[in-house]
Each structure stands twice: as C-alpha cells, then as structure tokens.
Design goal:
- It is built from four helices and no strands.
- By secondary structure, it is mostly helical.
- α3 packs across α4.
Length: 115
C-alpha cells in the first residue's frame, strides 16, 4: 500500500489540487467557488481515484485476474462511490474552504486513515 501512496496516491492528489488552484485562479474564495471545486472534485477526481485504487488493490495487491476485477467492479463500485460521496463531499468542502493549499493533501490523507 505504501507503493500506491508513493507512486500514485500522493502525486495524483498533489497535482489535482494544483490544477484546481490554477483553474480557479483569480476567483474569490466564496462559498460558490468552494462548491464548484467540491462538485468538480467529486464528479471527476473522486470517481477516477476510487476506480484506480480499487483496481490496484484488487489486481496488484491481491493478484486478482482482470475478468474477476471487472465482476467485482460491477458489483461493488456503485455502492463504494455513493459512500465516497457521502464522506468525501464534506471533507472536500472543509478542505477547500478552510485548509491552505499546501496542507490539503495532508488533510485528506489523515481523513483517509479512517476511511
């Protein structure tokens, strides 16, 4: 799992937050802007991250064949994503509203310890 964090998890989260900062550069940090960031995060990065993490843990860590992963994905991913939206939408709202850019990945990683 450390390999995931080192090679995929941390870099992708870092660049995602940098991208969002660039995308919304010059806009005031109003609640409206924060909600736009949350929506973009939860409709793009979140689902892709969950897919990648599920694939990694299934096929790399557990050695599951691709066909078996496809069945698992079809069976488990929808519920996982709905649970993710319930938790990570709130975390993202707090993150984008109150946490400085340089600490956002750290904040999300601390929450992920309990997820």
């Amino acid at each position: 799992m450390a390999l995931w964090g080192l090679l995929i998890g941390a870099p992708s989260a870092h660049y995602w937050h940098m991208y969002l900062q660039h995308w919304f550069a010059g806009k005031a940090e109003t609640l409206h802007t924060v909600l736009q960031k949350v929506a973009l995060d939860q409709l793009t990065f979140g689902p892709l991250y969950n897919l990648a993490f599920m694939a990694y843990t299934s096929m790399v860590v557990n050695g599951m064949p691709a066909a078996a992963f496809q069945r698992r994905f079809s069976r488990e991913y929808p519920a996982l994503q709905v649970k993710g939206w319930k938790v990570w939408s709130v975390v993202s709202l707090v993150n984008y509203r109150f946490i400085p850019l340089q600490f956002r990945v750290l904040f999300a990683n601390v929450i992920a310890l309990f997820w």
